[in-house]
Design brief:
The complex is a heterodimer of chains A (375) and B (592). Chain A is of the alpha+beta class and 375 residues long. Chain A has 11 helices and 18 strands. Chain A has 2 domains: 231 residues, 3-Layer(aba) Sandwich (Rossmann fold), CATH 3.40.50.300; 129 residues, Nucleic acid-binding proteins (OB fold (Dihydrolipoamide Acetyltransferase, E2P), Beta Barrel), CATH 2.40.50.140. The longest helix of chain B is centred in the N-terminal third of the chain and has 34 residues.
Chain lengths: 375, 592
């Protein structure tokens, strides 16, 4: 188990990690997620031993390692740019750690072959220089190099960010499979919410050096604890005052719809916005408020299309919604639509930045992720 | 104490390197210059301005000061005119045979300093081949026509354009061609584009070259000494003259200090300009420059003619030197060539006669010793300075740059004065007049260039390589040896080669500190120019020059031009970051 205990990291006048506390369980695939400069890499590098914290302690399996050199922490790491040694071959790169720790040549060769096979590197590639490999192959070498020493913990610092989209998707799955195969506690740093949601056991969403929320991917997405997390994860609408007032009124009239505070900042995930034709017979639980509007624009994404809709009521603003592409023509700019919103789907954050408990409880039994196409 | 300083002081490697550096800096960089100041302003231990008064009353000294500044200013104009022209002719305008022209102009990169000056003197001097030819046609002509300020300016102009070939060419290549296309689309002519878009864009580089040229003119030694005659002597030859007489050593020191102050002021201006930034790469994806056609037929012909005329000026001396290196002294002096004149005897002599080979051996010995020592030492220093960035490391770095901000003449003179008697800082060993002093001086002079380039090379190595090695179990020394050193090795080898090259024909430093029995090539070549007649010594000088050109060209090819993919890959890996230090070094004109 990894524990950050009251860690402070200060660079000159900049407080990168103030009072940072976190526990990561054994065998977890734990992700530190946040925007650039939020301190996620600093947290990772503190665990690796590259940064000496100004205060606080880091523990691994109950042992204090705060000032222990990196090489004695039994940690493997894959860097963002892979950090492969450019003057060495693939085999020499993977075997470097074994060489410096005095493992015999024969044993080094055996272990290098073994780990290379597990990351799909063949014997031919082992003899090549690392600059002769593609980005994906280099990444495999970096993973093999990190795993060959059989570390207790694997650190991954945005390892997919240098790859193209297709390869990134492919390697996500392979990374997760490797982690499960080796059963190794993994700490992953990324700013990509898709990566975090698809790969992690748990996620810590970070902002300005602080943890905003720790939870499973579902918890973080469906029950975003703070306004920041709600905005950072997924695509959301910030509802205009008029829309919130209308929804609050609807909720008061309909006890099932839950209560809303008309003054609180209110958000609605785009997939929770229902788009219907004005003459549509709306299916559902009857708690939805139907608001008339006009389609401003449509963007085609292949699997779905997203729409911007101008609501007709006073101060009701614009909302974004999406419809799965099922072969129907969909809406065009200028089409009249009915926008269906369930007050229970609205995420509200008070001054303390916490979602109202009632709203959160209402959302637990959530609606389908993609609004039904009703046209 | 900052975290960085504390961390630095915990490193045993840093402690050892710092202790050696502290002694080295105190003994060779600070103390000699303080002694020099003492010689001028406190000759008897009491403050005195007598040396300044003596300098003011010395007509020769004041003339040399004036001549130096005049030379520097004239060169700033002539070198820029010729330099800009040859770069535009070979890299900007669509001129036929541009590659060939560039190769011809680039002879200045493999042929300069005392070697070039001696070559010009031997060819154009009173007994020179060209003068003999001309005298045959015009018996009344003044045989000493190639002397004085005009000759000095001519030779130094040709030599000085090497900076344009390297630095301006590089700057021109970074001009975004889309800006030129945009100007063209708006109706700008070829000349207007050149004057309003291209030249203003590379203006910072031109300013920098101008200051380097000005400094070169100010501290010139070989050209004024060999070609200046009695009427045109400048500061450095005068320092040498004064330094050779014990009664006027204070004048030599005063002139050296004047030269040093001027250099510091000008380098200060240069640094300010560098900080002002450049105008390159505003666009995210700059387009490569395409050569521009000169639309006007007459202008095109005039530019072609001027380019090929200049080629002749550049190529004729080295070409004649190569030819005459295969002939006897009599053929050289008479200027008559026949098949019978050609011989390999000069080369045989150099490689078989110990006496003839000795200066070459001395130069190779000093060059190899200094270039390897300075690179080996600076590898550790550069790594530590790049790793630990704090006030202590900044102070160390500044001290190590002293040889860059002071002229080599001043440093050499400082060492001569400081160690002509037993001194505790040197363990009571007298260095002046010993074989060691020239080697030490070479090491000192090469520190700033080596440090700057190696630091840039280490900066170009991603920190993650070191972190990856550490997390895989390697200690700092293992990481340095197995990971960092192999990455910077190609750069280190290139720096060593460039250092070696620039020291092989050194004259300016050797003339102050070399041992009489261990005189390097530069001094021997200079002495050959003092002969009234052309003799076997002249033929040997030609052989030395050809060999030096071969060595320099080979080094240049190894450093910049080797086409192998592996080499390219390794160089790319060790390439310094894209800042001013990434500019290619001019092997003939490294600032010491």
């Amino acid at each position: 188990m990894i524990t950050y205990e009251n860690i402070d990291v200060v660079f000159d006048d900049f407080h990168a990690l103030p009072e940072f506390n976190l526990k990561i369980e054994e065998g977890e695939f734990f992700t530190l997620l946040g925007p650039s400069g939020c301190g996620k890499s600093t947290a990772l590098r503190t665990l690796a031993g590259f940064i000496d914290p100004t205060a606080g302690d880091v523990h691994i399996d109950g042992k204090r390692v705060t000032h222990l050199p990196s090489q004695r922490r039994q940690i493997g790491m894959v860097f963002q740019n892979y950090a492969l040694f450019p003057t060495m071959t693939v085999r020499e790169n993977i075997g470097f750690g074994l060489k410096v720790s005095g493992v015999s040549k024969a044993e080094t060769a055996r272990r290098v072959d073994e780990i290379a096979a597990s990351v799909d590197l063949d014997g031919n590639q082992l003899g090549k220089g690392v600059t002769e490999l593609s980005g994906g192959q280099q990444q495999r070498v970096a993973i093999a190099r990190a795993l060959v020493l059989r570390p207790k913990i694997l650190l991954l610092d945005e390892p997919l960010s240098n790859l193209d989209a297709k390869l990134r998707h492919q390697l996500r799955g392979q990374l997760k499979e490797l982690q499960e195969q080796f059963g190794i506690t993994t700490v992953y740093v990324t700013h990509d919410q898709d990566e975090a949601l698809t790969m992690s056991t748990r996620i810590a969403v970070m902002n300005k050096g602080r943890i905003e929320q720790v939870g499973t991917p579902q918890e973080v997405y469906m029950r975003s604890a703070t306004e920041f997390v709600c905005n950072f994860i997924g695509d959301v609408n910030r509802l205009a005052a008029g829309t919130v007032a209308a929804l609050a009124g609807h909720a008061r009239e309909n006890a099932e719809a839950g209560a809303l505070d008309a003054r609180s900042p209110s958000y609605l995930r785009v997939e929770k916005v229902g788009l219907h034709t004005p003459d549509d017979v709306v299916r559902g639980n009857g708690t939805r408020l139907m608001l008339p509007g006009t389609v401003l624009s449509r963007q085609y994404h292949g699997v779905y299309s997203s729409y911007r809709v101008q609501l007709a009521g006073r101060d009701q603003g614009v909302v974004k919604g999406m419809l799965q592409e099922t072969g129907h023509p969909g809406f065009a700019a200028g089409d009249p639509v009915l926008v269906g919103i369930d007050p229970a789907d609205v995420l509200q954050y008070g001054d303390a930045g916490a979602e109202t408990e009632e709203a959160a409880a209402q959302r637990t039994a959530s609606a389908p992720l993609v609004a039904e196409a009703s046209r | 104490m900052s975290t960085s300083v504390r961390k630095m002081l915990r490193s045993p490697l840093f402690i050892v390197v710092a202790a050696v550096l502290l002694w080295f800096s105190a003994a060779f960089l600070v103390w000699p210059n303080l002694r020099l100041l003492g010689e001028v302003f406190a000759p008897d231990g009491k403050p005195s301005f007598r040396a300044l008064e003596r300098l003011g009353s010395s007509q020769r000294a004041m003339d040399s000061l004036r001549n130096s500044f005049v030379l520097a200013m004239v060169l700033s104009v002539t070198v820029n005119l010729v330099g800009v022209f040859i770069v535009l002719a070979t890299r900007y305008f669509d001129i036929r045979g541009a590659r060939f022209l560039y190769l011809g102009y680039a002879t200045t990169l493999i042929y300069g300093g005392i070697v070039q000056v001696a070559g010009y003197k031997i060819i154009y001097g009173e007994q020179g081949f060209v003068t003999n030819l001309l005298a045959g046609a015009f018996p009344e002509m003044d045989r000493a026509w190639f002397t004085g300020m005009a000759a000095v300016v001519f030779v130094m102009t040709v030599a000085g354009t090497g900076n344009h070939l390297l630095f301006m060419t590089n700057a021109l290549a970074r001009v975004d061609f889309q800006t030129i296309e945009a100007a063209r689309m708006m109706g700008a002519s070829t000349w207007r584009v050149l004057l309003t878009i291209v030249l203003p864009t590379i203006r910072p580089m031109l300013y920098a070259i101008t200051i380097l040229t000005f400094l070169g003119g100010l501290g010139a030694l070989a050209a004024p000494q060999v070609l200046g005659g009695t009427e045109f002597q400048t500061i450095t030859p005068m320092i040498l003259t004064f330094a050779n007489s014990p009664s006027s050593r204070d004048l030599a020191a005063t002139l050296a200090i004047v030269l040093g102050i001027s250099t510091i002021l000008l380098l200060g201006i240069l640094n300010r300009m560098e900080r002002g930034g450049t105008y390159f790469a505003v666009s995210k994806v700059p387009a490569a420059l395409k050569k521009q056609r000169i639309e006007n037929r007459w202008a095109n012909a005039a530019v072609h003619a001027a380019a090929y005329l200049l080629l002749a000026v550049y190529v004729l001396p080295p070409l004649l030197i190569v030819v005459f290196s295969f002939t006897s002294a009599s053929a050289i002096s008479s200027g008559t060539l026949s098949w019978e004149s050609f011989t390999l005897a000069n080369y045989e002599l150099v490689f078989t006669d110990y006496q003839a080979f000795w200066p070459f051996l001395v130069s190779i010995g000093y060059g190899a010793f200094a270039s390897l020592t300075v690179v080996a030492g600076m590898l550790f220093v550069a790594r530590l300075l790049q790793k630990y960035r704090n006030k202590v490391s900044a102070a160390i770095e500044f001290v190590l740059h002293i040889p860059w901000i002071l002229p080599s003449t001043l440093i050499a003179l400082g060492l001569v004065i400081a160690y002509d008697h037993a001194s505790w800082i040197m363990g009571n060993v007298v260095l002046t007049g010993t074989v060691a002093l020239l080697g030490i001086t070479y090491v000192i002079l090469k520190i700033p260039f080596t440090l700057r380039m190696l630091k840039a090379a280490f900066t170009g190595v991603p920190d993650q390589l070191e972190e990856a090695a550490a997390i895989l179990g390697a200690g700092p020394l293992t990481t340095f040896r197995l990971v960092l050193l192999p990455v910077v090795a190609p750069t280190a080898a290139a720096i060593a080669a460039l250092n070696f090259n620039s020291l092989l024909d050194d004259y300016d430093t050797a003339v102050f500190v070399s041992h009489p029995l261990y005189q390097p090539l530069g001094i021997v070549i200079k002495n050959a120019t003092a002969e009234d007649t052309l003799n076997d010594g002249t033929a040997l000088t030609f052989v030395y020059t050809v060999l030096l050109m071969l060595i320099t060209a080979t080094t240049m090819w190894l450093v910049y031009g080797r086409p192998s993919a592996g080499g390219r890959r390794k160089r790319a890996m060790a390439a310094p970051p894209a800042d001013s230090t990434a500019e290619p070094a001019n092997p003939r004109n490294q600032r010491n």
